[in-house]
Design a protein that fits this description.
By secondary structure, this protein is mainly alpha-helical. It has three helices and four strands. It has one domain. Helix content is 53%, strand content 9%. Helix 1 runs antiparallel to helix 2. The protein is elongated, with a radius of gyration of 19 Å. 8% of the residues are buried.
Length: 91
């Protein structure tokens, strides 16, 4: 449980910090979606690389998790599974 909360919080903080950086880089290098009258009705150019911040935050949280003692499965899926087939318990 604590591992999931720690990974989620780390990913949130990294995404919170990386999103403005990606937005500014997108605007500086003109990686934007320009409005037109056919399908796009936004008033100003919109940055196109917002998903990069999310991917970097998820990967960064996994890298930061080296100090947390958990398995690779816990890091990649952010869940803990413990099965006891003899007792019929799955948590």
């Amino acid at each position: 449980m604590h591992t999931t909360v720690a990974l989620g919080f780390t990913a949130f903080v990294l995404c919170f910090l990386l999103t403005p950086l990606c937005r500014n880089l997108s605007l500086r290098f003109n990686i934007v979606d320009h409005p037109d009258n056919d399908r796009k009705f936004h008033a100003a150019p919109i940055p196109r690389i917002g998903g990069v911040a999310i991917v970097l935050a998820y990967a960064g949280a996994s890298v930061c998790a080296k100090n947390i003692s958990c398995s690779v499965l816990d890091i990649c899926t952010s869940m803990r599974l413990n099965d006891d087939l003899n007792s019929g318990i799955s948590t």
